[in-house]
Amino acid sequence: MSRQVWDAWRAVSVRSFSQRIRRLRSWADSHLSGWIHEKTIRLCEKRSRWAVAYQHPTGHRTSNMLDRMMRGMNRYYSSTQHFHGSLTAIRLTSRSQALLWNFTPWHPSIKHRDGWQSPAERLNKHRYHDDWLQNLLISASCGGYRYKQPPQNP
Question: What is the Rg, in whole angstroms, of the alpha carbon atoms belonging to the chain?
């Protein structure tokens, strides 16, 4: 069954996708039973929602990349007991985690990095220092650049 589902996802057009989903449903009705049949039929009923992806031909058909990121975020926030504490503590915790996710280097096996070592470098197209921690400290400090200077007392 997984092959039929995967083949439907790999369709090149909305028409082809719809046809493959109809075939999958027909195949499921004649070959499957129980909960797996129910799940397959539910999947087929969502055809119109997934057909929207064909309006964006360069977009990703699956959310695997996002799911990987969200699993890590979910684990992190679960271990911090889902924002227990003050609003200030929550903001600082979220900011610290975002900084770490953005500045820690990718694993060397990650492809399509274009020479950048982390998401922040790729986004900014700049590396202050070869050490990722130095990059984080320099980038995160802002040196007051983005904020209005408080008035000086005479």
Answer: 24
Give the distance between the most distant pair of CA atoms in the chain.
85
Residue 146 sits at the vertex; the CA angle it makes with 119 and 118, to the nearest 5 degrees, is: 10
Tokens read off for 3: 């092959």
Cβ neighbours of residue 62 closer than 8 Å, sequence gap 6 or more: 9
Q: E strands of the chain, at which residues?
A: none
Q: Where are the domains of the chain?
A: 2-55, 64-144
Positive or negative, the CA dihedral 22, 23, 28, 29 is positive
pLDDT in tens, 81-107: 767 778 888 888 888 888 888 888 888
pTM metric for this prediction: 0.48
